[in-house]
Amino acid sequence: MAERQVTSRCRWLGAALAVSLVLNLGMLGMVGGIILRAGDQGSVLRAAVSALPSDDRRALRRETRAIWRDMRGGSGGGSGGRSAAQDMIAVLQAEEFDADAFGDSLQQAQDRFVQISTEMHARLITRVSAMSAEERRSYADALQEQMSKRRWQGRDGQARSN
């Protein structure tokens, strides 16, 4: 009997971990897709980060990883990602599919993503705001160089320079 409970609990835990992994990979895929293919606005953001001095760029990346860890743990995310994933699992495992509940779970994940993105933008603005006029001019030159050497895809699929 005790073996049966352990096996049953392990199967549920395994399914929960698998769904959580899929959701996390999906979120990373969305972020990567946005960064790589977001058009002009995404291109500017990516170039803006790339143009930062290397110490600032490394610090911003560390801060970004901390934001992701905090949000994944649920701090600052209200109910956190774990409950959204658990809700999604429950909706998917239910006998009758509830599209609204599934949509609510996806909306919670999207809201977390927007909150993370907003925090990342705020950190970039803070970092640039702390620069002296000379550092900002140097940064502007580096940004201009980043933008001139990168080629982005237009809506028609043709590569173009910005």
Can you walk me through this structure?
With 162 residues, this protein is mainly alpha-helical. The chain contains 6 helices and 2 strands, in the order ααααααββ. A two-stranded antiparallel ribbon has the order 1-2. Strand 1 (151-153) and strand 2 (159-161) form a beta hairpin. The model is unreliable at 75-81 and 152-159 (pLDDT under 50).
Shape: elongated
How do the helices and strands follow one another from N- to C-terminus? HHHHHHEE
CA-atom Rg in angstroms: 21 Å
Adjacency order of strands in the biggest sheet: 1-2
E-strand count: 2
Share in β-strands? under 5%
Give the CA-CA distance, first to last residue. Answer: 67 Å
Indicate the percent of residues in helices: over 70%
Question: Which regions contain 5 or more consecutive residues with pLDDT less than 50?
Answer: 75-81, 152-159
Provide the domain count. 1
Can you give the mean pLDDT?
74
Question: Total number of helical segments?
Answer: 6
- Biggest beta-sheet profile: 2 strands, antiparallel
- Structural class, from secondary structure content? mainly alpha
Key words describing this protein structure:
mainly alpha; 2 strands; single chain; 162 residues
Put the structure in a nutshell.
The chain is mainly alpha-helical and 162 residues long.
Question: Which helices and strands, and how do they pair?
Answer:
Elements: H1 2-37, H2 39-50, H3 54-73, H4 80-93, H5 99-129, H6 133-149, E1 151-153, E2 159-161
Antiparallel strand pairs: 1-2
